[in-house]
């Protein structure tokens, strides 16, 4: 028997709809450490939810499983029904129905095997438990199979952090308290860009603290990958942000996906809205999909499954309709060692667009990036954060990514940024204008600019520049004229070297993603 995934209960009431559905005769006490659902006669609890559904259509498309079954920890007498739903009307069918008496937690109940459908009829599977005794309880469940794994998986988990100590501690506690994960082969590399974490707190055998210079997310994730690669142990890697809330079963299910994979594919975790926890903000996105019709469009991202309320069955069934994606965010992104050997490491972009550029190289390999439903983390959506200095990295790194992977036209680009600058000046947003111009200026300097820069020093300079103008509620004609003059000057001068700069970024990208470059860039010994 191999366990494919666990069925966990919610830790708090604000996320309960993402784990279970209960009627009025079933309830859970969230104050108890050892949680269980308590049912009276007629009470119903169901795994018809985002995290605890089995998304058959995705599993049969990408992995080798043909049969699964449920193991349930129950106490009392129950009727257990298993259902399949597909997207559309009249979409629920019963797969099996069984009665069990005098169940005990110590002896999990095994449900009849489910033969997985391998065609368009494949859907989403869940169970529904009805209590037939006066009192009953449900504690946990597992999805299991008797089929052998196709490969052994060892996972190197890299978490990059900058002064997010509480988040890191919570994430690590969530992982190490998961009993199923204890059976898996993994190690966590916490890369501390802020150098504020205490080594004495990192004593687990499966845990390593890696102090690092502040080279941003791209530098932190890459440092972790270098550390993991040097151990020459891990078949796959998982990158995770520091400021997330994690459901540990997402990591366990990730193991199953890689262990039973038909072909090598990357897994993109969805982003759940930390402010509205039942909302799926996105599950991957496309990049630059309409640039041919509208010219240069930095930040041209179209989120897949954007802003979906996960509390209804119809929304969950909608997730069965797989959307094409170009990238998955580094808040939760997993790929094989084989991918790294072929495309090398991320680009030194500090933050923003680094995950997109990395994924574009995966796509160019012909490898699929899949956003599996039920694998996601809670994270602050990008729309909730408006930090001016990030504008610099968004625009500069967009330009670099376009130069490497697409054809970037001079006139399209200048026209686009001229409009952006005029709009910013019309609202007296001089700091934003400063960031736009600075990003363009640094892009035009070519790859040597990044190669010869110290990331910490550059970032401090960008932070300072982003606050150059104190009062932005009043017209400052002199500031506006100076910024506009500066823009037209750099735009005109760049026309001569535009093509050579674009070619320079493209040709330098292989060197700048190599281990040799990164070790030097991060100040490590070769």
From TrEMBL:
The source's superkingdom equals Bacteria
Domain (Galactofuranosyltransferase GlfT2 N-terminal): give its ranges.
Answer: 9-144
Task: Provide the E.C. number(s) assigned to this enzyme.
Answer: 2.4.-.-
If you read the UniProt record, what top EC class would you report for this enzyme, in one word? transferase
Q: Which Pfam families match?
A: Glft2_N, Glyco_tranf_2_3
Q: Which SUPFAM superfamilies match?
A: Nucleotide-diphospho-sugar transferases (SSF53448)
Q: Name one GO molecular function term.
A: glycosyltransferase activity
InterPro entries per the UniProt record, alphabetical: GlfT2_N (IPR040492), Nucleotide-diphossugar_trans (IPR029044)
What does the UniProt keyword field contain? Answer: Glycosyltransferase, Transferase
> What name does the UniProt record give this protein?
Glycosyltransferase
Q: Where are the transmembrane segments?
A: none
